[in-house]
Amino acid sequence: MSSTNFEFLDALGQIALDKGISVDTLLDALANALVAAYKRLPDSAEEAVVTIDPESGEIRVYGQELNAEGEVVREWDDTPDDFGRIAAQTAKQVIMQRIREVERDMKYDEYAGREGDIVTGIVQQTDNRYTLLDLGKVEALLPQAEQVPYERYDHGTRLKAYIVEVRKTAKGPQIVVSRTHPGLVKRLFELEVPEISSGVVEIRAAAREPGHRTKIAVWSNDAHVDPVGACVGARGSRVRMVTNELRGERIDVIPYSDDPVDLIQNSLAPARVREVRLDETSGTATVIVNDYQLSLAIGKEGQNARLAARLTGWRIDIKSESQLEEEEAGLEGQEWAEGEWVEDETGAQVWKPAEGGEQISAADYSTKSAEEAVTEVPAASETTPSEEAAPSEVSSEEPAVEETATESETPGATS
Questions:
Q1: 105: nearest Cα among 164, 165, 173
Q2: Do 3-111 and 181-254 show the same overall fold?
């Protein structure tokens, strides 16, 4: 028992305290390393065990003899004379290696069960493949696929992200986070809305197009609590905090309903729905809206309709009242000329056929449409319009006097 061993134990205890590792863990790692060092010595036993007294720091090596079943049949003290020097050389390397391993395990254990949680990090590095976030003890990986388009991650910016996966690697835990996951919106509302964190209000469904728009359907377990009002907050203060974190992404908060008709109507807000027809066989919901509400219900590039479909789980087919009337009148399959009205060089409106060809002025288009309408009307007799017009034309072979004479013979005519 020497003072050196006491100093060794004191240093070991300080390391364990600083790194948050138990002394027993370090002693076990050192004992295993000393066994490997002992077996490299000449005339060492094939089997050996190293013991370290946690009170005095004394290190002993015991050689062992095993039988065929692996049981110890004989054991003796085989500590080399200069084993203290070997122990000192081995201790530093082993302890540092073990500290790194334990730190990696501790970091992994800290985040292993946190998939679906939200973390706050500082942007450290950004390139075309990924962005690194400093979470304090570890770094999180934000891949390009999990980044919001057009969102910039400047160095030093504080950012909230959603944990989608925690991987255990040889270099330590790898935490993969996302800024596009719908769960990020849910977690942000949990931070801002006490009613959600307490369980009074629930987010039953969410649909998101990252960077543009999100719809969430909320439900209250308390009849006296308005779920939409709780999430929006006074003058929109709560939902504004979430919007600011998402860099201006628009958020629609709608009331959840067990009735699919009500849920579909709510999901298409701000458009007003006149009627919803459900086809449970195909899972399609036909939504009827006023003509002036059609574009609002569909949304820019169909965004409102897509989010409503994801939120409700129904395929949504939106039709205006005029379209519905045409279908019911049997005009749905009628073919119409395809094209568009454009301005020519003079600024006049002309019809440009979709299949190409000569452009038609507005006057010619009206005349052509009128002619097509006349040819489609059934005639009272078999004579064509051109044939009916023929008698009114005077032939050059007929004398004009005969026509005059005929007129004079007409009853009731006066000269």
A1: 173
A2: no
* 113-178 placed in CATH 2.60.120.10: no
**In Å, what is the CA distance from 317 to each residue of 111, 132, 294, 314, 323?**
43, 42, 11, 9, 12
Write out pLDDT tens, residues 76-92.
988 887 777 777 777 77
Determine the Cα–Cα distance for residues 247 and 351; give it in Å rounded to an integer: 44
- Encode pLDDT of 164-212 as tens digits: 999 888 778 889 999 999 999 999 999 999 999 999 999 999 999 999 9
Is domain 181-254 in CATH 3.30.300.20, yes or no?
yes
- Segments in 82-192 forming alpha helices (H): 83-112, 182-192
Q: Which residue has the tokens 């007003």?
A: 272
Q: Dig out the tokens for 384 from the structure.
A: 């064509």
Look at residue 400 in the predicted model and tell me its pLDDT: 39
How many angstroms separate the CA atoms of 103 and 97, rounded? 10
Which value, to the nearest 10 degrees, does the dihedral of the CA atoms of residues 204, 207, 213, 219 take?
-10
Looking at CATH, the fold of the domain delimited by 257-334 is given as GMP Synthetase; Chain A, domain 3 (3.30.300)
Q: How far is CA 26 from CA 15, 19, 101, in A?
A: 9, 11, 11
What torsion, rounded to 10 degrees, do the Cα atoms 203, 206, 208, 210 define?
30
Q: Retrieve residue 63's tokens.
A: 């050689």
Check whether domain 3-111 has CATH 3.80.10.10, yes or no: no
Q: What is the pLDDT at residue 366?
A: 61
Identify the CA nearest to 48 among candidates 39, 59, 57, 58: 39
